[in-house]
## 1
Amino acid sequence: MRAIFVVLMLCSAFLSFSAAEPRPLNLMPMPASVQIKTGQLVIDPSFSAGISGHSDRQLQHALELFLDDLRRQTGMTALDMKLTDPAQAKLVLHCEHANEIVQEVGEDESYSLETSPAGAKLDAVTPLGIMRGLQTFLQSVQTTSGGFAAPAIAIQDKPRFLWRGLMIDVGRHFIPLDVLKRNLDGMAAVKLNVFHWHLSDNQGFRVESKKFPKLQEMGSDGLYYTQEEVRDLIAYARDRGIRVVPEFDMPGHSTAWFVGYPELASGPGPYQIERRWGVFDPAMDPTEERTYNFLDSFIGEMAELFPDQYFHIGGDEVNGKQWDANPNIQAFMRTHGLKNNQDLQAYFNTRVQKIVSKHGKTMIGWDEILRPDLPRDIVVQSWRGQDSLAVAANQGYRGLLSFGYYVDLMWPASRHYAIDPMSGATNLSPEEKQRILGGEACMWSEYVSPENIDSRIWPRTAVIAERLWSPQDVTDVNSMYQRLEYVSRWLDWFGLTHNSSYEPMLRRIAGSNDISALRTFTDVVEPVKDYTREEIARVEATSLSPLNRVIDAARPESATARRFADLADALIAGRANSEDKQYVRAFLTRWRDNQAKLQRLETGSFLLQEIVPISRDLSEVATAGLQALDYIDRGERAPDAWAKQQSTLLEQAQKPKAQLLLMVVPPVQKLVEASRGQKSRSPQK
């Protein structure tokens, strides 16, 4: 019981602090300039807001959304926080002019915010700047000993990059509109401004076409968005200062197109929706005029539906096998002097670019579209890296970075945070650097459902948002994690479920309401990284596979393991006080004893059977850690035989089991090595 109490105290220590202490500003993204002043503005039922200067429907609606968010955040939902005369208001918004009718790249998003005990003033050139500043104000509101309040501050802020996006793939797994909307709310909260909607892939075509209805009727399993729903989501996004860019992948990743329209394909078919994951052979036929006639009509229809200037054609991962096997295509290539499949795809891209341009849009595509014969107004989205992005900029093309921002790969926040779009731009001229527009986080959906998608996007996408908004020198990882913990909980107020979905999923896995032992276990494991899940799977996953296992509930990054690692590092370095040492021992004791508790659930749930080996590993690893602590506390050098035995144990425990990684192994390895008087050689997370 004492050990459990100490652990609870530890968690409390990380999450709270004395009301008498000055509270840190947990802002994310960090503004360009922040000055903290004396005092605070009380947020009570009399709080009101007013607009001076330019006012329009979009600005008024933004203020209404802000007041709704503030009511929910403070719990004062029934009280009359209202829009009023600016002379009487506690928060005054001043805006110079309206946004563009259709939101554009490069519109002014800067703002200044000044808060004092007497009131607050938010100034911006456009309503977009007002929206960004209102989110900063919301983040600054705190619970204090005297009530809700915003600290007195002076902020001057503007984004570093013009394009700060989140891509959500709804082709592989359909994501309902309400889930997308709450993620748009999360995007607005951290100042992202582009929703990249990946609407078609081998596993599904997800938007209604009135001209070609068999696209959705035969290629979607009935899971698609009507055009009215698309318009609704675009309007919802615009109200939050977010552009919506559609992506229809072509010529590859297009099997779902061919179910209803096999004549578009380079092979005879018949076709059906693909259930597996990977790169597949089917691709559009680039040699047939009927392909371009179809695309002309389809792109024209979608160009009217989606008002944004940019239209994404995908263009990635065409393996060319259907092209190689088609004698007509091979003959076409010889006639037109096309030496290889890359030349053939370049021919296709050139034809499609002209169609996109004809309908008043600017084409975007992934790295593979980059060829010097394409017009310089296209945009290249790089998944290959900053060097690829710099090459495009050097050749005159604008670009976006997504390499390093694939949140489906389960990387820790710190790794995403370290990726910068400009890191490959050292040798670029100032003009070439301007062509790097920003970047996008990417949520590919092989292993997400409406239930767990939020936990794969948030809160880590907030640190990508900071990288794209904040000054380049905002890089302190400890500060980032401190603020991220607060922001993660703050995002709950926008309806995101990255925190709230965790325990219900564990209850289902356990088949019981008593999930304390399962949570203790799941809190210190993470899903395997990159594409390892597919590589080590015992059974091939498909789009029909249920996502109800421990790997689907486990968080991409274990906050508990990271905190334990920090404490272990402090102990080894001699920086730990007696309380820190108690916390380390309490953690290890809890993990050592957890296997016996979890065993009571294991026999009653088939979903727990696969984690039995790794649960045993946790107990044995914790036992090794406690023994190492005993040697360290007694000042004894651990015996060679014991150390060798523990190293073997830890090496085995570090291997993935049930597609999970036990994240406390590296810090325990450090403790074992410290007990031998050695410097740690354990791998870094």
Note: The CA atoms of residues 637 and 677 lie 7 Å apart.
## 2
Amino acid sequence: MMKKYLGGLALFYSVISIGQSVYAPLNDDYYHLVDRLDIKAENSGNIFTGVKPYLRVDIADLADKLLADTTLHWSKVDKANFQYLQDDNWEWSNNKDSANSKHKFIWGLYKKKTDFYAVNKKNFRFQLNPVAYFTLGKDRYSNPPILPVTKTVYLNTRGVELRGDIDGKIGFYTLLTDNQAVFPQYTVNRITSSYALPGEGYYKPFKIGGYDFYSANGYVDFNITKHISTQFGQDKNFIGDGYRSLMLSDYSSNYLFWKIDTKVWKFEYVNIFAEMVADNLQDFTADANYPRKYMALHYLTYHFTKNFDVGLFESITFGNTDSIHNRGFDWYYLNPLIFYNAVENGLGAPDKDHVGFNFKWNFLHHFSLYGTALLDEFDLPQILAHTGWWGNKQAFQIGAKYIDVFGIKNLDGQLEFNVVPPYTYTHFSFSRYTDYSYFANYSNFDQPLADPNGANFYEGIGILRFQPIPKLTLTGKLFVTRIGLDTAGKDYGSNVMLDYDKRVSEYGNFIGQGAKTTIVFVSGTVSFQLARNMFIDLTAVIRNQSSDYKKYNNTDDVISASFRWNIAKRLQEF
């Protein structure tokens, strides 16, 4: 039903559309290049960094403008990154010819440095690229007093990526991959507990201890006016300026959505209407029609100055059924200019509403300070009473980025701290017969829509990146998480899928309650770009999870080598 409604609306707008670019896929390394330019120049052009992904035309425009700005002093590596961004988005760059290959290939392949096959006609542009991701490594994991076990881990991904536009009006994008993998034990534990593969969702068993899954995302997009664009398809979105997001992250599976993006003067206003999976009901023996849920979201950003942004966020999640009747998608939430909480109250609907505030401040051409405050529920007297009322659910993020640390060119650092109280993002059930919490909680395919840790945690993140030469990048990451996990039969507030009516206590709650657990995740990666968008990655991961509950101490030591072609790293950082 949702597909029918949203698809019809999206196709209607295509009739009146004017030129449009597609989006650059979410990619941690790629987007760092753009954010780095935004901080150094203190001017992101038409890019509002609190909403991702970015349009390719905006990335190309930013690279063109900054490369032509003689007042800014760029390193040799920075200029190479400019060139890379221009070439990767050549169809929108002022320097299109720089992407032309110097050598001729058979059958007209690689006319452009970045594209296996490209067509560039007046009314039709088309780019086709093969996708491959092969990883081989070892995972040595232990759970004392059990002796350590070593197993081979691997990832085998093959696929295709295509993008283009028709008549300069309709853009399109598709990424299709077939995957088989054996994951490190800590990832297996996450899959076993949620019956969902992180970032993907559905999977099938593959041989002994392996997973077989198919990944697909694709969309069409177009401009309604010069300042309003729209996108319809299956993909992910990210709201916020941090490494994690407390509002909407790309951790869960792809989902169907319709997005309207309005950029005018100093404002960007984004509306997203999505259909998601409420509960995966994982069953490897038969097909199943998973229950659906819906989300409506809007995010307003305002450029106070060229280097200071503030954003206002609101989302609501709700099911296609309730205790009375089959509800379907509620058309009231399609109103793009209204507070969802007011609609919810007017309908008497038991839906899940979140409100948030975000800011970002770039200064001194080297620093960026950012933060988020998310309100799940807000009762000022209860907060001031300091009684540990379970409904005190206000999550916070604060972080900073430092470009060219201590004057060392292309050495960039980031620090971030996230705190999420117990029961944040959770909801309630109507009765013992209908678990409505699955429909309204902030999740998709049994995975959190915000931070991968769910709730009831403190999290500190440190990231250091160094690009000594254009083709070589060194990355180190540290995640330290203090979380209170649920124990058998007791809901302490970490699992967003659980019904908060089954909470352990009305008062006396605190962050980290339950099975007090510490997770330390350290990773180091050396990436070398062999050719355009073709990488060799050498990665080492050490992950330790220890708990006061039952006094366990689990460790994963993972070493792997990867070959990537036209695809982002698969990150499992939790």
Note: Residues 411 and 466 are 4 Å apart (CA to CA).
## 3
Amino acid sequence: MSYVSKTLLPGEKIVLEAHIHWIVLASAFFSWCVAFIIFYRHDYGMVARFAESVSNVTMIPLTVDTLMLYQRGAAILVGLYAIIQTRTGCIRYFCTEFAVTTERVIVKTGLLTLDTHELNVNRVTSLNVDQSLLGRMLNYGDITVEGMGGAFTPIRAVVNPLQFRRYMLTEVEGSKIE
């Protein structure tokens, strides 16, 4: 059962549940690709020529084995960075929930620590959507809900942010009429 479902008030219904876009995992994917390319790229002839040219210029003897060791070390460092990116992206992708209900906007983030923001729809003053060119092509963007007395921090990489805005504004206008 999701956090949003557990925190519904009596008579409150979920109008729209939104999700984070898969793009938050793209940096991890590219980091893994770079790590694998560095680790598995073996052109001994090119490495031997490079080692010979560096040895001639710097007078420091470099061997192919030494350069291959440096290459493996670089691959391991990039791999560690990819692990961190994967962990961060997965936590963000799988542990972020947000929804528009008939009464509130609810945002929950975090895995071990819980960070929640809730704002009554009748207290919303504006809703901003920011989309980059890539965001428009892949249909994701950042949303900032501003309310009386403060603003949410932007919710990054929301799938279909214009639909989220449409449902949110419909609920805000409906709460002002009642």
Note: The chain is about 50% helix and 25% strand.
